[in-house]
Write a structure and sequence with these properties.
The chain is an alpha+beta fold. It contains 16 helices and nine strands. The longest helix has 20 residues.
Amino acid sequence: MKIVRRLTQLAFLVLVIVGVFIVNGHCERWCPLGGVEALYSYVTNGTMTCSLGVANFFILGAVLLMTLLLRRAFCGYVCPIGAISEWVYDLGRALGMKRRQVPYVLDRSLALLKYAVLAFILYITWTSGELLFRAADPCYALISRHGKDITIWAYVVSGAVVLGSLFVMVPFCRWLCPLAAIFTPFSRIAPTRVHRDEATCVDCGICQRVCPMNIKVDQVRQVTASRCTACLDCVSACPKLADGALWWGLPKGWGGRLPQVAILVVILACIGAAVAATYAFPLPSFVQSRGDAPAETASVSLEVVGVTCRGSSSDLVDRWLGRDDDYALAGYVKVETWPNPTVARVRVTFDPSRTTAEKVRQAIVMPYYDFLGGSLEVSPFEIQGYRPAVDDL
């Protein structure tokens, strides 16, 4: 059982590394925590926090569904921080380092810290509109390309997580992970769980000792703790496994035992559905309107270089499509953007009785003349495949 989980963890970690450093993908937009961080600004004003996208919402939904079915299986099979932390712990045992057993009461008290971490992250993100937590995020230290947007604190926290993991099982996952705080109410009601047969159990306590989340498996008939990651380490370590002392699955009236492969099937199905939904329903991550919509509208879709985040999207709307010089647009205008580090999709809806698609293009790329200051400002945006007429320059 453990080898299957280890291989699954390795596969997802390799996928992340390849996506970031070889494909140059923007993996931050596939982080489920990003869906929570972006929720407030998207609901209230139709904009996403910079560096995030609607894919964050789809992957968040998929992971919550996964948690609702399998408890915190995301933590035990998919999360790269959890995987690295477990491997470091195993390395510590291989090197002969003594495991530090945290008293149960202290362990449960420390676990409350994750709610404070989540509240702090959401507060600074929702009030600033920026991902300020990046500065100390160990996950971002893994999935970023280590440019100017990462600070020394991310490496300091990552080092502390690695150092702590040499002696304690998954300390970050148990006590500090903000995603764990989000998972708690969903995981608590999940129908799948580890079951213990009191008649065949010999009370050896091995299951509790190997549990990475310090759950007292040997003292309950069913593991209903929300922090269970469905790792099944307790089941595989049980000396009475053949006698059915421990098993994983649904309640007996719902179907009983399930194989570990069922976990993998659900994980892949949920993540696959999130990826498919992202491309099937490409929602814009920035939406802003000006004026009242007329009875009839027209729209133009453009491929624009320079729209990389919420900030540049706002600049496009306020500074260029909202300009007040000879290229000013009259009437209603609605702008939707799909920011991208290279070429972004931009859709502009307008009142066709007062402006045209050509005027929209001109407003985006033509230099802005400041009548009061007497200065000329070159547009930071470029529309692929479009060059204004010579007379317009």
